[in-house]
Amino acid sequence: MTEPTDLPALEQALSGLTARISSLRQARAAYPADPGPTLDAALVELDTARDLLRGAIGELGKSRRRPAGPGGRDGANRELKLLRTLYRAMPVPVIVLDASGNVRRVNAEASRLLGSPDGYLTGRAFPLLVDVSRRAAFRSHLTAVLHTGETAAFPTRLAHQGRAHNVQLVLTQLRMAGEPQEMIAAVALPVEARTPEPGRAVEQDATPDEPQLLAGARRQELLSQLTRLLLDEESLSQPVALIRSGRLLAAHTADWVIADVVREGVARRSLVLGPTNQPVSRLIRTLERLSPAAAPLISHVLERGTGVVHEMVEDDSLLGALPDGVPVLQAARAGSVLSVPIGAGEETAGVLTLLRLRERPSFGLADLALMEDAGAHIGLALRAQRTFQDRSQAADTLQTGVLPRTLPEIPGYDTAAAYHTGAGPRAIGGEFYDVFRVKDGWGFALGGVVGQGEEAASVTALVRGGLRTLSVWEDDPAEVVARLNDALVVQDTGMFVMVAAGFVTPGRRGGRVRLASAGNHPPAVLKADGEVGYTSGGGMPLGIETGAKFPVEEVALAIGDTLVLYSDGLAGSRGRSGQAELAYGEGRLTEVLARCAGQPATSVVKAVEDDHLAFSGGQVLDETTVLALRRAR
């Protein structure tokens, strides 16, 4: 292109350039999926802008050399003013550099691109605005332009005031009359985002196009996936929330994920994930051993409780250094870093740090907002996980007071039992079983409190302890149950207990078992030949009224016979057959027991467990208890 030789031609060329750039913007917005032709045309317009700038500089030189006649000085001043106006109004970012690479002048579009006024940028070293990984290449291009006078065009990244931009940068030499050294015009065209219309702020002019909308939708979907993952039952019951969250973020938004969690007031490294397609396992192991306290960025986020994003890494020391002194960010080849607190409100439970490689698009403010939400979600999940684990430990402690660790051996008898809490978050159950010494032999019991939770477990423990204590002095299970009932009424717990309890004296002829029932399902008797029958059962639950009487019966067990006690949770549990819900019930239990003739107590209990699991479709929802007592000799 021929350079304009006078001011009217410059004005006309500038007007045409402005119109064409506006058309290119419209084309990019209309056809975002095919940016190639638009970008090629934009590069041509960069050449046009360069030539316009050269023409403007030439006119400026002429005006300085032109002798001042009558009115000449005023005319020259008007021309200088017009040229400055033209430079400032150029619709593309233009920065004038001296031979050392320092900023001498900045037009309005360049100020808008870099996010600072020209007065702030003037005098600063332009290489400091270039990505660390690309500064050496920029200096080489600058030197070549100064020595050869030939124009250089190349892609690079600029960053300032928290903004980062991928640009096509064109460097061209300028010779300005009156200047002691040569100048360089740097024309930058952002290639990753639309340049705002002249005179308008980005916020006022930017209308979300399809790529922006898709990016926003992807961010929302990522947050939705994270929320669903953290609400999963296993994420609450097991210490997997952090690792699952990290894997999700590494798969969708980051190349490196580092999580540091505060334990006992000290931040400790808990997770490091790196690029799966690169040999970084040794670096991961090294990062896992580093202290978060040595990373200034992590310490800053912990102290302030707010997130930070560096769209372009300008300080390699943000995450500290490896033992050999190499900065962590340099070893990880990070081009962009984002760090947010883990936790919600005033409580900071840790720090989540994400890195992207230099060749990847930078993190932005939208990513920061998304990750701050993610950090809050993860913090809430970790808090819920700790609460769940504390309650589980309490449940285990209470359950120890409800269930025996092992069953004692009763001479001449074979015993076995099974207990299941049911599916869902760990609940403290109200059912129990026990086998214990009594005055003249051995006692056994199975039952349950109507309810769940800590209060139900405490009542269950009271009943179990009461049965053991009273059986030391009483030889009649009905009398033991009656005394226990009166004690519960006096305690006024507001809870009812169903119990089946019995005494057996080993060696007694005929294997006599005395059974007392307080509202529990009648125990089953499996004969050695496979016949199945049930005891009378009956009686009211414990804790309703003082002085209640409870039925007692005597059951004769022959060698090979098995007495099976079971809870209401087993008999009343629901399964599905087609569309109708069915209770497990005594009918199905009878069929299972009949198939267990002659088998040991453990096999009988296992058969009931397996059948109930199949009946429940593989997921036992109800608390269930089974106790079997088989006469072996």
TrEMBL record:
Annotated ranges, domain PAS: 79-149
Tree of life domain: Bacteria
UniProt keyword 4Fe-4S, yes or no: no
SUPFAM superfamilies: GAF domain-like (SSF55781), PYP-like sensor domain (PAS domain) (SSF55785)
Native organism: Sphaerisporangium krabiense
Protein name listed in UniProt: PAS domain S-box-containing protein
CDD domains: PAS
One of the Pfam families matching this protein, by short name: GAF
The organism's taxonomic lineage, starting at the top: Bacteria, Bacillati, Actinomycetota, Actinomycetes, Streptosporangiales
